[in-house]
Amino acid sequence: MRILIVEDDVNLNRQLAEVLKEAGYVVDQAYDGEEGHYLGDAEPYDAVILDIGLPQMDGITVLEKWRGDGKTMPVLILTARDRWSDKVAGIDAGADDYVAKPFHVEEVLARIRALIRRAAGHASSEIVCGPVRLDTKGSKATVDGVALKLTSHEFRLLSYLMHHMGQVVSRTELVEHMYDQDFDRDSNTIEVFIGRLRKKIGNDLIETVRGLGYRMQAPGNGN
Amino acid sequence: MAIRSLTARVLAVSTVWAVVSLVVIGVVISELYRQGSERGFKDLLRAQLFNVVNSISVNEKTVLSGSPQLGDLRFSQPQTGWYWVVDPIGEFDTPPLISTSLGNGKLPIASVDEVPFDTGYVRFYTTKDPFGNEVEVSETEVVLDIQGHTARFRVAGNRDVLEADINRFTRNLTIALSIFGLGGLGVNALTILFGLRPLDQVRRSLEKIRAGESERLDGAFPREIQPLANEVNALIDSNRRIVERARMQVGNLAHSLKTPIAVLLNEARVLEASHGELVRSQVDAMQMQVQSYLSRARIAAQRESVLARTEAQPALERLVRVVRKLNPEKQVHLSIDPPGLVLAMELQDVEETVGNLLENAARHARGEVWLNVRPAPSEVHAKEPGRQWIVLDVDDDGPGLNPDQIALAMKRGKRLDESKPGTGLGLSIVSEIVREYQGSLTLSRRDEGGLRAELVLPAAV
Asked: What is the pTM of this model?
């Protein structure tokens, strides 16, 4: 899961990034509106944390531009202005949720998790695929009730596949959502991680769709 | 001594001026009248003198003879102060001729050195007759025949007549001028009162502005007052701009503090427990201050909104749209009956009150939130006749609150549920705004379970 933080305050940006990375997300950081807009336009993010008061281009404009270009990723806006007229403006510009400053970063994390889950169409904080249960709140996964020991890369891969259960996910897509923009990407490493994951959760849950990518689904649900 | 009343000032000056000018006018007029009267009196005496001269002659026995017919009884009645006397002068042995009125008395003669004759050889002087009357004497000397017999002719008139006439005139003049002066002062006072009335109008307009019933000095003022009114309006405008700017700066300052507060708040978590707790509690205090100044600035802004109008439907629909988006798993129902209701409030305040209540309801609801809007029943109108009210019920199907919790919830900054996000200021902001508009906020338990927040807000007529 890859997240973009657009916040001009360096410290707040860092704090948000730390908490999100700790929770297993891949994070890109931008410090002004133009940079943020460019990244959001060019890279596929699973969610964006967007400050409203930004230099170069304000958050509302950035958001309107993204929505105008057909970008649909969930966006959480951060703002010091917490009057309802500001909330209305943010939501009308296309925001999905709203956190007023000052906030605990955990609150932002909780909201981001809920946004990602909702965007993938899951109502509950737990996603189940056969014997595998993914706890999005606790960043944990179990197989038949037994806790899985996963590296952070393996967890991200499993989380992304489970959020998009039943859909074919290409290798490029996986790479884009698992590494930040500065990472030297090699899609072959994905195969290695898929192999490790299959060993831990069982071979029949992740199906290789030749030429297209991978699909995760519970046994018996396939066609 | 400074006179503080404009009316008194103008009245004092105009009174002094009226008295001085009327006295001067009175003195001048009465002096002119006196001169005229004197001249007339002397002309009369001169005419009588010539009458006497014409009717007296010297007969063959060189004796003065003749009896002047002056047609005035005062010359024949005794001691009237009106006399004629003809005295022979020089080698001219004859008894003088004297009017009956003088009897055997003598009329004193002024010396020629003191009162010389004029060009017509007549002289006038004032003297006293033997009876004590002050008399004006006209005198001339005439040669009566070719032998050179000469006589002194004198005609005297009583000055009392003259003085009485002058005094009567002066008295009448004084009465007339006094009436005129008093009338003038009255007119002056009226003029001042009438002329200063626009100032009173200005005062009343200013009172209205202070009471918030009006925004500026309106109305047509006289040319002298209009610049003052313009200046006052300019002052009000500039004041409003200053206040607006100050309020904006308070807002900007408060908002700009929020990011550093957020940073501190989060950084405090990784500090050692005791230090972290200290920083956290101080940061919380800062946060409360920021919020309370922001809400104070907002409430100060409201005082100007006397004539605010907000259509309920679009404003509430917008809020419901936001709450639905933020809480996609909850259902939010909106009903406005009849649809055209208009609130006598600023849009912002409608948003703040209803928005916060909706947000609370959505946060605690199990699945559904209702916002029902309708005109207030007539018993609410009875509180203040002539004002219409609108009732807005915000209901949820959550756990609701018991009476103690309701009392606690209405206290400023209290949060019943510390585990759910929020500063706890939502409800106190709502009740402050509601109080500002003389409306009401009541929390109660719904019969079906859950909480009902009932807002009564002013309707625009």
From this structure: 0.64
